[in-house]
Specification:
This protein is of the alpha+beta class and 491 residues long. Helices cover 54% and strands 10% of the residues. It has 2 domains: 1-25; 32-488, Orthogonal Bundle (Cytochrome p450), CATH 1.10.630.10. Strand 9 and strand 10 form a beta hairpin. Bound molecules: protoporphyrin IX containing FE. InterPro entries: Cyt_P450, Cyt_P450_E_grp-I, Cyt_P450_sf, Cytochrome_P450_Monoox.
Length: 491
């Protein structure tokens, strides 16, 4: 017994001393770099352990206040380097090194398990290879009927709702994207738009709010201490709701495959992500984690970007007029014209508008990586083992990279101007081998639905004027909604 107690004590002591030594090494390497003053015992815990809305403001303000490389101590022994520095970002993202994620992503695991977003590098490589087939250009044509079906439902709903007052865009857009993404990822038709059932979305939003609250608090990041909080109980309930939904999608798809409703042609080229993983013979838990990952990653991001795009079009009539003009030049004046992938790819001006939305609002404000080796640039070294947060938002709003960053200007991306954008300063989908797997699908979906909406409605600003309040649930949203007026449009 005595030997066991001594062994346990020595193990704890060893872990403690190792952490202390690790902190000393990192502290020495990073101490010369700017950042908010931190306490030796609790780091910057109290500055970042506030309400989610303050967290976003505090986070995006860091690089503005301290420069493009900022050292933060959310955990007293584990610093986080917040980067908005093109050369460092390029060095991290452009190679096959530094592909691992930081400890932050462990807080996602109760929901996403070890799937594409959260997995370690070896598993990630295998999963990414399996999933790639569902995102190849050869299958893009099969997206069109899915877009059409769900967009037509959205238009019908907006026609009714717009007659009785302002429309809060995320309320309707979020349900449209959820229906579309469920079908694109799993081949199962859901009807969130008609039922307005938001139990699933509420559970997800609550989970992500807790996730963001854990991001900068080592107390809540600690599994043991988090277990003792009320939020742990809430999170457990959210996960039950979320997993019930992914299980429903899996069961429905399994049944359809059993009934031989699956068209298995062209060596699986038309298979969804769910079909590909079902064929890979993995556990049911794993399957649910993959479904959850693709639905959450593929839903919130285009949903938010579409809502912000329509909102800015309502508030910039001259830009809206150019988008309408371009769509008429490509599709003619029939409001029911069905687009092709080629049509969508020809919408160059709309492309500039969406790219500017992805800069101006920055749908995914930041993401994190773990450094696999030392990186030295201009005499500054970030040591191996450092956790870095690539602040896409701060990079997109750096005056040096984007002049007048707080002005909404799609012409930054016009053929005459786009070459002025420095490499690794525009990163909405991040870059490199671990970039967004769904980026092309997202651009096609966003162009298709925005075109459909503006061909059916004239979008107008509300009165009195509204100012969005950005907040981050990992994905940027507006805490006070995005209201617009809609009037039927005759092309
Ligand atoms: C406007 C739309 C979108 C934006 C701005 C966006 C942005 C991003 C970003 C920044 C990442 C890196 C996240 C990180 O490393 O933590 C990412 C990863 C990812 N995205 Fe997207 N995304 C969008 C749409 C989509 C869609 C439509 C899908 C799928 C249907 C998707 C699936 C994924 C997945 C699975 C990953 C993880 C990739 C990996 O680790 O290999 N995304 N996305």
């Amino acid at each position: 017994m005595y030997t066991v107690v001594v062994a346990v004590f020595l193990s704890i002591l060893a872990v403690f001393l190792r952490s202390l030594y690790g902190r000393k090494v990192q502290y020495r390497a990073l101490s010369g770099l700017p950042g908010p003053p931190s306490n030796y015992l609790w780091g910057n815990l109290f500055e970042f352990n506030k309400h989610i809305e303050d967290t976003f403001e505090n986070f995006v303000g860091l690089n503005k206040k301290y420069g493009p490389i900022v050292v933060l101590w959310p955990h007293p022994w584990k610093p986080l380097v917040v980067l908005a520095h093109a050369k460092f970002i390029e060095r991290i993202l452009s190679t096959n090194t530094h592909l691992g994620k930081t400890s932050l992503y462990e807080c996602m695991q109760p929901f996403l398990g070890r799937s594409l977003v959260t997995s370690e590098v070896d598993a990630w490589k295998r999963i990414r290879k399996q999933a790639n087939t569902a995102f190849q250009p050869k299958i893009f044509d099969s997206f069109i009927p899915v877009f059409e079906y769900h967009e037509n439902r959205l238009i019908n709903i907006l026609k009714t709702k717009s007659q009785s007052g302002n429309i809060d865009l995320p309320t309707y857009v979020d349900l449209y994207v959820l229906d579309a993404v469920c079908e694109l990822m799993t081949n199962v038709k859901t009807n969130f738009q008609e039922t307005s059932d938001n139990g699933y979305l509420k559970a997800r939003s609550d989970f992500l709010t807790i996730f963001m609250n854990r991001a900068y608090s080592w107390v809540k990041r600690s599994k043991f201490l988090f277990f003792l909080t009320k939020e742990h109980e809430v999170q457990k309930k959210c996960v039950v709701t979320l997993k019930k939904f992914s299980q429903y999608l899996i069961d429905t798809r399994k049944e359809a495959r059993k009934q031989s409703k699956v068209v298995d042609n062209d060596n699986g080229l038309n298979k969804t992500v769910l079909d590909l993983f079902m064929d890979a013979d993995i556990s049911e838990t794993n399957l649910r984690d993959h479904v959850d990952t693709f639905i959450v990653a593929g839903h919130d991001t285009p949903g938010s970007t579409i809502a912000f795009s329509l909102y800015e079009l309502a508030n910039h009539p001259e830009i809206q007029a150019k988008v309408v003009e371009e769509s008429i030049s490509i599709l003619g004046k029939d409001p029911n014209a069905v687009v092709t992938i080629q049509d969508l790819q020809n919408m160059n001006y709309l492309d500039c508008v969406i790219k500017e939305i992805l800069r101006y609002y920055t749908t995914v404000p930041a993401h994190e990586r773990l450094l696999d080796e030392d990186i030295t640039i201009d005499g500054i070294t970030l040591p191996k083992g450092t956790e870095v947060s690539i602040s896409i938002y701060a990079t997109h709003h750096n005056e040096k990279y984007f002049p007048n960053p707080h002005v909404f200007d799609p012409d930054r991306f016009s053929p005459e101007n786009v070459h002025k954008i420095q490499p690794y300063t525009y990163l909405p989908f991040t870059k490199g081998p671990r970039d967004c797997i769904g980026k092309t699908m997202a651009m096609l979906m966003m162009k298709s639905v925005i075109t459909k909406v503006i061909r059916n409605f004239q979008l107008l600003p509300v009165s009195p004027p509204h100012t969005p309040k950005p907040t981050s649930e990992f994905v940027l949203k507006s805490a006070n909604g995005l209201p617009v007026k809609m009037r039927s449009r005759i092309l």
